[in-house]
Each structure stands twice: as structure tokens, then as C-alpha cells.
Amino acid sequence: MSTNQGSAKWNGGLKSGNGSISTLSGALKDFPYSFSNRFEGEKGLNPEELIGAAHASCFSMALSMMLEQAGMPPEHVHTQASITLDKDGDGFAVTKSHLDVIARIPGAEAQKFEEIAAQAKAGCPISRLLSCEISMAAQLEA
User: Which residues are the signal sequence here (predicted)?
Assistant: First the structure.
């Protein structure tokens, strides 16, 4: 079993306040975030961006493992996760995570790759954590 930790501090009101995010590993230490980063398009970190990075990295590792187990070791897997935050009643909800995947696997059969990618999408730990719709477009790179 592995236990990891992330923490956040928030100061002040929602729109006028600001916060910082840290991880136990120190990869993020007091990294700033704010309402405007999340809801007004201002450049900067926000929770959905972190979820996207977590989903993309988890999926990429799961897919690489499953491809290797199937005798199709990838040269590389590049994944981008797009997280959708929608208005939900009086609040907001993460409603979708879309994975765009490009993998280079010499000699791979497209149908087998797509089957394994679908299994990785369903089975990676972050996919299993998310209760939103998860879609994917996976392609082999020539």
C-alpha cells in the first residue's frame, strides 16, 4: 500500500483570497493558486489542472505496463488529460476527463493497441477514482 499526501491552505474569501498547494514529496511547495486561476482564465495552477496531470501520468504508466505485458513495449506514450469543470446546481462538478493518447510502438497492431488502451483507461487507479465520464482518443504514431 502506498499513501501520498497533498495539502492546501486558503486565505480570505473565495474571490479575493488566495491559497497555496503542497505535496509531501516537496515537488510542489506552497505553490500559489486563486479563484482567477480556476474560474477566470488567469494563467496559473488550479485543482483541475492537477487532476489532469495525475490522470495523464497514471494512465500512461498503466498503458505502458499493459503494452509491455502483451509483448508490445512502447518507445513512448504521450497523454494529455482535459478536465471539464461544469456548473452543477449551486456549485461546480468535474464532469469529464478526456484522454488524448499517442504512442509509438514499432510493429504494433492498431486494434490490439486500442483494446489495451481501453483496458488501461478503465483500470488505472486515477480513472477508478474519478466518478465523471472518461473518454479517450488513442492513436499509434507512425
Answer: none
Per the listing, cell 478536465 goes with 83
Helices and strands (H and E) in the chain: how many: 4, 6
The answer to whether the CB of 101 falls within 8 A of the CB of 59 is: yes
**How many alpha carbons lie under 13 Å from residue 128 in its C-beta half-sphere?**
7
Whether the full predicted model's pTM is greater than 0.70, yes or no, is yes
Task: Give how many domains the chain has, as a whole number.
Answer: 2
Cell numbers placing 94 = 468535474
- Mean per-residue pLDDT for 95-119? 95
Considering the domain architecture, whether residues 80 and 14 belong to the same structural domain is answered as no
- 51 and 35 inside one domain: no
Cell 492537477 belongs to 50
Indicate whether 57 and 124 sit together in one domain: yes
Instruction: Quote the pLDDT of residue 120.
Output: 97
